Amino acid sequence: MNITIHQTFLPHTDPEASLAFYRDTLGFEVRNDVGYEGMRWITVGPANQPSTSIVLTPPAADPSVTEEERKIISDMMTKGTYAGVNLATDDLDGLFEKLQASVEVVQEPTDQPYGIRDCAFRDPSGNMIRIQQTP
Questions:
Q1: What are the tens digits of pLDDT across the range 92-122?
Q2: Residue limits of the VOC domain (predicted)?
Q3: Which CATH number do you get for residue 102?
Q4: N or C: which end of the chain has fewer CB within 10 A?
């Protein structure tokens, strides 16, 4: 049996800002952009990994989420504590140099005590994006 990661979901609050970040800043390709009842689901991913995607979803789309929960989710997204994803690159310092002027930096490239070198920043919706150096 072979199991792979196919999609992960991150909430977004502004589809155009999310597109600009994931497509224009990170260089991901847009694989799908679906609108429904004033909301948009945008699927992006690295061009060299066509079977792995991030689906940017409107946090209000889940009908089982109450208004109180929506407020909590919004507050957590603003703080950067609701959702996140770990990415990887073979040139962490080079990528950080490229990104730092256009993103909210949370942590510069750092050698972590658990053996990983990484950096962290937030996307336009507040999601925590960590990028690790690949060996």
A1: 999 999 999 988 999 999 999 999 999 999 9
A2: 4-134
A3: 3.10.180.10
A4: N
Q: Is 37 left (phi over 0), alpha (psi -120 to 50) or beta?
A: left
> Where residue 135 falls among pLDDT bands split at 50, 70, 90?
confident
Residue 51 lies in a domain: yes
Domain count, the chain: 1
Does residue 43 belong to any structural domain of this protein?
yes
Is residue 48 assigned to a domain?
yes
Range of the domain at 43: 7-133
Instruction: List pLDDT tens digits, range 65-93.
Output: 899 998 999 899 888 899 999 999 999 99
Q: In what order do the strands lie in the sheet with 104-111?
A: 84-89, 128-133, 117-122, 104-111
Spatial separation of the C-alpha atoms in residues 47 and 26, rounded to whole Å: 11
> What's the rounded Cα separation, in Å, for the pair 25 and 78?
20
